[in-house]
């Protein structure tokens, strides 16, 4: 097997992942990879695709929020240039015959223009990530995608929860891999305690479950739980979840970058003229722009963050933590959880010490309380929340130590299982600049104090990471202008955030004078080109985020409400 998989891929697989890849190859590349979340289904699927390289190109169908993550993972693991990995963003896109991988969403694959192109291409390898999206036999996407899977020589279905509530949800996935297995009625009668009534067949029950499990393991299913492979897992597994932003957000950031270039020119002129006062004024202007971009990055990611929360709500019952910095982002996360009727606690700068402790105990001990919504600066230290299996960062922060401390709210002594860490990053925003800087800063600190680089390694090779950061370096240099300016700006930004936190704790706003110098700014109005994973007839338009005019003067205005404790329903 190793001879057909590049060594730089095979050698980085954990032993249980190597076993999973080998089993998939034994099953002729037609499998339902049902490993529990956090065990690397994506990585195993990429390795399997590498084994069958002679049969490329590969089609990947996934939830819309995961398209860019798939692109990034393929780049990292297979050392392919991005231009060989096509991501379909809209129904008007043309599928390239030159691409090694074509990545699209369930919704787009169901649209007529894309559907015809995919059918015409006749892909020999098709990957369906989160394949439980195909559980309904009557859904438009199921009727479109199942034939593509049946027609492929290799079909890889990935899902940590293949059946969310009842065995009948497995039928479409099994039929995609074993077309001649049985009919839906025969499956329903045998394994779903099927009964006829005046409305037709009722397949909501279950029967002969042990037999079904045995059959699946013998034919298409590969499934491991974390507890089964615990000794092989690192204590923390990080992954960057790359998301797209709306077209209007892209226009906004293009305008901000143009404004930044103009400021850079004036800053260089100020240095040449040795005008200290003027240089300080321009530096302050640039720092203000940086704060504005930081806030707008959080806002631009909100539709994708909301969708990610919906997927977590629908497809896992485990507890998780969501970190953010800006109050607007924290509020939107809270509102989304309320809409989902998910019970949660929230800890931010307005939460008293006693209430914090009560909320922590509730999250730790109440099985109905699934989510903790936390401020990065106000809840990053001193809290024990190791009941969480997953930590999601909706926003980044300038100081990497704050992020590590946030991760360690779940990764504590007393916890035996691995913790998954997800960083949601949006391309074309400040994340492109902030993430490499965070990693670089942590490396320098680690070398100074520990004698070796500290790490915020994600699931990727150091060479792939270095290459990516090398590509981004011109963008970083262009943004900051010089290392001297970079140090001054980042130091100032971190200092200002600390001042904000201190001021908020004391009930005042120390940076209000600066913020009043910031012009008003109109955030993105809606997200008309935002592609959720649901099909058109399933999508609820009322879920779309509608943002009103936002005054930038409120950028550091924290909520003065009483400590919040939310119990708005159960899952």
TrEMBL record:
Q: Which residues form the Helicase ATP-binding domain?
A: 22-180
PROSITE patterns given for it?
A: HELICASE_ATP_BIND_1, HELICASE_CTER
**Keyword match Ion transport:** no
Signal peptide span per the entry? none
The record, for SUPFAM superfamilies, names: P-loop containing nucleoside triphosphate hydrolases
A GO molecular-function annotation: ATP binding
Ordered alphabetically, the record's keywords are: ATP-binding, Hydrolase, Nucleotide-binding
- Where does the Helicase C-terminal domain start and stop, copy by copy? 304-460
Enumerate the residue ranges of region (Disordered): 455-475, 523-571
Would you name any one GO CC term? nuclear replication fork
Q: What InterPro entries does the database record attribute to this sequence?
A: Helicase_ATP-bd, Helicase_C-like, P-loop_NTPase, SNF2-like_sf, SNF2/RAD54-like_C, SNF2_N
Regions of compositional bias (Basic and acidic residues) in chain numbering: 463-472, 551-563
A Gene Ontology biological process term: replication fork processing
Q: Which PANTHER family match?
A: DNA ANNEALING HELICASE AND ENDONUCLEASE ZRANB3 FAMILY MEMBER, SWI_SNF-RELATED MATRIX-ASSOCIATED ACTIN-DEPENDENT REGULATOR OF CHROMATIN SUBFAMILY A-LIKE PROTEIN 1
- Would you tell me the protein name for this molecule? Uncharacterized protein
The scientific name of the source species is Spizellomyces punctatus (strain DAOM BR117)
Give the source lineage, highest ranks first. Eukaryota, Fungi, Fungi incertae sedis, Chytridiomycota, Chytridiomycota incertae sedis
């Amino acid at each position: 097997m190793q001879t057909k998989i590049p060594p730089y891929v095979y050698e980085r697989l954990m032993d249980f992942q190597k076993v999973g890849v080998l089993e998939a190859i034994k099953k002729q590349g037609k499998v339902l990879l049902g490993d529990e979340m956090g065990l690397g289904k994506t990585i195993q699927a990429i390795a399997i695709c590498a084994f069958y390289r002679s049969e490329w190109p590969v089609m990947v169908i996934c939830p819309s929020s995961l398209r860019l993550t798939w692109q990034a993972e393929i780049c990292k693991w297979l050392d392919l240039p991005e231009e060989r990995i096509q991501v379909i963003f809209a129904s008007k896109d043309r599928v390239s015959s030159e691409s090694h991988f074509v990545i699209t969403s369930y919704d787009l694959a169901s649209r007529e223009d894309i559907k015809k192109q995919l059918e015409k291409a006749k892909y020999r390898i098709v990957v369906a990530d989160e394949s439980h999206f195909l559980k309904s036999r009557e859904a438009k996407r199921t009727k479109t995608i199942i034939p593509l899977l049946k027609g492929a020589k290799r079909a890889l279905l990935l899902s940590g929860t293949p059946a969310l509530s009842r065995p009948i949800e497995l039928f479409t996935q099994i039929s995609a891999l074993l077309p001649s297995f049985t009919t839906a009625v025969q499956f329903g009668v045998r394994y779903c305690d099927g009964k006829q009534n005046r409305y037709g067949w009722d397949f909501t029950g279950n029967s002969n479950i042990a037999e079904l499990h045995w059959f699946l393991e013998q034919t298409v299913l590969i499934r491991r739980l974390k507890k089964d492979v615990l000794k092989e897992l690192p204590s923390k597994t990080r992954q960057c979840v790359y998301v797209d932003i709306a077209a209007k957000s892209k226009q906004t950031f293009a305008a901000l970058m143009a404004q930044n270039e103009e400021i850079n020119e004036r800053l260089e002129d100020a240095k040449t003229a040795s005008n200290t006062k003027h240089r300080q004024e321009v530096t302050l202007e640039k720092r203000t722009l940086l704060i504005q971009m930081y806030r707008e990055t959080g806002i631009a990611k909100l539709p994708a963050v909301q969708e990610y929360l919906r997927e977590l709500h629908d497809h896992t019952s485990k507890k998780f933590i969501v970190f953010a910095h800006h109050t607007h982002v924290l509020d939107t996360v809270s509102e989304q959880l309320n809409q989902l009727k998910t019970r949660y606690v929230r800890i931010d700068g307005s939460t008293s010490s006693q209430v914090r402790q009560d909320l922590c105990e509730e999250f730790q001990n109440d099985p109905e309380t699934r989510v903790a919504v936390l401020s990065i600066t106000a809840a990053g230290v001193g809290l024990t929340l190791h009941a969480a299996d997953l930590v999601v960062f909706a926003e980044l922060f300038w100081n990497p130590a704050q992020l590590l401390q946030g991760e360690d709210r779940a990764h504590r002594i007393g916890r035996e299982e691995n913790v998954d860490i997800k960083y949601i990053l949006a391309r074309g925003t400040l994340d492109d600049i902030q993430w490499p800087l965070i990693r670089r800063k942590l490396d320098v600190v680690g070398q100074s104090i520990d004698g070796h680089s500290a790490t915020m390694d994600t699931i990727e090779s150091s060479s792939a990471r270095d290459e990516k950061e090398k590509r981004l370096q011109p963008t970083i240099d262009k943004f900051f202008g010089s290392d001297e300016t970079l140090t001054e700006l980042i130091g100032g930004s971190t200092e200002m955030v600390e001042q904000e936190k201190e001021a908020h704790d004391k009930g005042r706003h120390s940076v209000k004078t600066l913020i009043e110098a910031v012009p008003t700014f109109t955030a993105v109005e809606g997200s008309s080109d935002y592609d959720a994973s649901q099909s058109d007839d399933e999508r609820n338009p009322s879920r779309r985020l509608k943002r009103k005019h936002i005054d930038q003067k409120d950028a550091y205005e924290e909520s003065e409400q009483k400590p919040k404790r939310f119990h708005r329903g159960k899952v």
